[in-house]
Here is the input.
Amino acid sequence: QVQLVESGGGLAQAGGSLRLSCAASGRTFRGLVMGWFRQAPGKEREFVAAITQSGDNTDFAESVKGRFTISRNIYRNTVYLQMMSLKPEDTAVYYCAATPVWETRVVGSAYDYWGQGTQVTVSS
Here is the structure.
C-alpha cells in the first residue's frame, strides 16, 4: 500500500512559479512511475507529467511542455512538480499518482494510488 500526500499548492500570479511536492509512504516508491494530473472545475481530469522509476525519463502534456518540470528524490520518497510561467488556465486541483507501468502513464485509470489533491490558482 502506498499513501501519497501533496503539498505546495496555493495562489500565484500569471507568469509566476509554484512547486508541488508529493510525499509517498511505503517501501515500493522506487518501483513506481509517478505522475501528476489536474482537474479544473467543470473539466475532466487530465495528465500533466510523469517520471520513470529511476528518474531517467519524463513525459509532459503539450500544454505544459517547456514550463513544468518533474523530478523525484528516491531517498526522501518525494516527487516534485516545478511549475513556471504559470497561466490562468493552469488553475486546477493537482493530484499526485503512482503506477507500476510506464507505457500507460497518461491514462488516469492505470494509476493505483492517488493523493488527495492540492489547489493551484493562477490569477491574471
Notes: The radius of gyration is 13 Å. Residues 34 and 98 are 5 Å apart (CA to CA). The longest strand covers residues 18-25. The chain has a mean pLDDT of 96.
